[in-house]
Amino acid sequence: MIVKKADEAPAKRVDIEGAVGVWIRLLIHDAEGAPNFYMRQFDVEPGGCTPLHQHDWEHEVYVLSGDGVVSGAGSERAIGRGDCVFVPPGEVHQFRNTGDGTLQFLCLVPADSG
Description:
mainly beta; three-stranded antiparallel sheet
């Protein structure tokens, strides 16, 4: 069993096309020996967004703090603290911060998601 503080994982800027003001922390992943799922924390600065993208795997998101919107399947939904989001495989999606503070969320993905 491994127990650690989330802020012990270094925050790294997401440096891919379409990402604006996004930071990632790898909380639980292969370094901890996780064989099936990875847990990541994203921090999106005010006015920032993840790239509009899609992939072959599902993921689950839990919003820790902040206000934003998630776009997908031709719609846009407001999200905030305590909200849960399921993004099915293949769905084009994006998370965008619409608030004054940091939009912070956990994202769970399969370990073989690349």
